[in-house]
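Researcher: Go.
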Amino acid sequence: MSTTTEKVTPTSINLHQKSRLLEIGFSDGKTFSLPCEYLRVFSPAAEVRIATKPVHGKAEVNISRIEQKGNYALQLFFDDGHETGIYSWDTLYQLGDDYDQNWAAYLQKLKEFNLDRSETGPDYHSGETSINILYFMRLANIAGKDTETVVIPDSVNTVTALLSWLRARGEQWNEEFNDERVQVTINKNFAEPSTPIEQGDEVAIVPRGQQL
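Model: Structure:
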């Protein structure tokens, strides 16, 4: 693993969505072109770091939005709904500097778990992870329906991840489906942010202060 002797900061940040690359130039003169897939599977988010299996099926993932967090990090919003990773300057620099060895280790780990980079790889199970979502009050107006059955990606495995995934649908969704503005039940039991979501669950989402 590489180490840095001086504090480095970005001098340029450019997202190339067509080629799915995030290009970052640093103050020491180094420039890295980091694939969105690489950034997604090496997300510093807690749910990624503690997972036993590597994140997989992200060959086509893209970054939909970037927000700078103060003068120390970027928050990356991926089009699969993942947005909980905060990438510090040091993290981005290390990911760039250690790209070759990190990627080789990742590919090896995929082999060990018999997983694939593609969504249609050996671990893909189309239609198996589906849930029924019930919308109440103004949330039903935003959704345009009271209920829908959706197939969710592997990364949407908790209440927090589901709300994040739904917020990526648009501006109104982003505002109204904030964790602090809604309450969630799973199979008619009140859920916590970390409550797992599994195949066949009935998930009800209601504005806080309203009765189900």
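Model: Confidence is low (pLDDT under 50) at residues 121-127.
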